[in-house]
Specification:
two-stranded antiparallel ribbon, alpha+beta, 2 domains, 4 helices, 117 residues, Arc Repressor Mutant, subunit A
Amino acid sequence: MEEKTERRKVKLRIPSKYGNIEVEGSPRDIKILVDMISGKKRGLKKNSIREMIQKMIDDKFFHEPRTLSEIKSELERRGFRYSTSSLFPVIYRYFLRKDIMMRIGEKKSYKYFVKDE
């Protein structure tokens, strides 16, 4: 007698601005999908603030002095949400201390820019 083992299926409904997205699969498959979407799966790395700021430097965004608010807005425009308070430590540690960037102004109103090459 042949015994069939039925795999348990799970349905997941994800609301989006384009309508609901429905996915069906095993619990393991659904977990893999959720991990991939959230960036938790090995091999999928979320862009770090440092990488994003370096990309903005490469794109010449910092050839004009920019405030932290302007930097935050540009990151949001590119699809990344970081708090203003998380930007300063990265800019200071990786760009100011290494003389890649400079800042002008006074405390709480600094503007950051790339040194002329």
